[in-house]
């Protein structure tokens, strides 16, 4: 049996999948409600476009992705901390690096699942609400998917490291929430999304192909797109990989010194 399959079996009794689907349902319904309310108000300019549903998805993910993965990471890491299951698997020859990579694959997969359910819901509701098609929709759809996966990977790596370093505490979750608030405040209130490149919780905002809406650009015929958006995704991927390597190193060093 593969290590990933064994990792999944650890969470069988904790009903992790039910928890994940519950989160996905709540966040998808919330997002759908936001889009439907906006569409019911006779929107003008770019707010009348289907791309606006993707913009709403991105805006909500800026606030929810970090805390969501932080909570999931605490549950996934907590299984090994309860009953010393992590020590049992290491006694059977599973290295700390392999344990980390397995958990990272599981957490990234679950975070991506939640995000894709939200994105599909946003696209479906936007179409059903009568929002109009535009060139920007096709131009950014796959960009947003790629950037979401990269962001989920980066946040998952860091949150797993935090959950491992702070055994049995909520410190990792608190740091994730604070990190999200900092990057959101910098991007939305201070109009400085570039700060998002410094923290994993801000990659989705910093690398967004859609420029933040303002009174000046929301009345246009279509969304203003970032120049070289795939370059931003590539840069986000490089930053995410750096965070993952750093997180793995911290966990391995802790286990070696234990």
Question: Would you list the SSEs in sequence order as H and E?
Answer: HHHHHHHHH
**Uncertain runs with pLDDT below 50, 5 residues or more?**
none
Task: Specify Rg, calculated over alpha carbons.
Answer: 19 Å
Distance between the termini: 28 Å
- Going by helix content, strand content and strand pairing, the class is mainly alpha
Keywords: Membrane, Transmembrane, Transmembrane helix
Transmembrane segments: 16-39, 59-79, 100-125, 137-162, 174-199, 230-252
Pfam families: ABC2_membrane_4
Topology readout:
Layout: H1 3-10, H2 16-39, H3 51-81, H4 85-91, H5 96-128, H6 135-165, H7 171-189, H8 203-206, H9 229-257
Helix pairs in contact: 1-5, 2-3, 2-5, 3-5, 3-6, 3-7, 5-6, 5-9, 6-7, 6-9
Keywords: Membrane, Transmembrane, Transmembrane helix
Transmembrane segments: 16-39, 59-79, 100-125, 137-162, 174-199, 230-252
Pfam family, one: ABC2_membrane_4
TL;DR?
This protein is mainly alpha-helical. Helix content is 72%, strand content 0%. The protein has 9 helices and no strands.
Description:
The chain crosses the membrane at residues 16-39, 59-79, 100-125, 137-162, 174-199, 230-252. With 258 residues, this protein is an all-alpha fold. The protein has one domain (3-257). It has nine helices and no strands. The protein has helices spanning 3-10, 16-39, 51-81, 85-91, 96-128, 135-165, 171-189, 203-206, 229-257. Helix 6 runs antiparallel to helix 7 (171-189). The longest helix is centred in the middle third of the chain and has 33 residues, at 96-128. It is globular.
């Amino acid at each position: 049996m593969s290590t990933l399959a064994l990792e999944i079996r650890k969470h069988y009794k904790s009903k992790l999948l039910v928890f994940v689907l519950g989160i996905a349902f709540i966040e998808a319904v919330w997002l759908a409600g936001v889009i439907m309310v906006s569409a019911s108000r006779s929107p003008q300019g770019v707010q009348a476009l289907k791309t606006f549903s993707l913009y709403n998805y991105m805006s909500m993910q800026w606030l929810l992705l970090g805390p969501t993965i932080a909570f999931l990471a605490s549950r996934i890491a907590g299984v090994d901390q309860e009953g010393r299951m992590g020590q049992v698997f290491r006694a059977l020859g599973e290295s700390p690096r392999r344990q980390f990579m397995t958990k990272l694959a599981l957490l990234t997969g679950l975070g991506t699942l939640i995000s894709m359910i939200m994105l599909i819901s946003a696209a479906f509701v936007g179409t059903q609400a009568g929002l109009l098609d535009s060139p920007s929709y096709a131009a950014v759809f796959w960009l947003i998917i790629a950037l979401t996966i990269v962001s989920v990977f980066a946040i998952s790596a860091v949150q797993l490291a935090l959950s491992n370093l702070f055994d049995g505490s909520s410190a990792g979750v608190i740091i994730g929430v604070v990190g999200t608030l900092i990057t959101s405040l910098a991007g939305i209130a201070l109009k400085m999304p570039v700060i998002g490149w410094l923290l994993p919780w801000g990659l989705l905002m910093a690398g967004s192909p859609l420029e933040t809406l303002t009174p000046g650009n929301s009345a246009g015929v279509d969304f203003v797109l970032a120049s070289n958006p795939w370059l931003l995704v590539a840069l986000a991927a490089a930053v995410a990989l750096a965070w993952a390597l750093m997180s793995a190193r911290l966990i391995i060093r802790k286990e070696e010194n234990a």
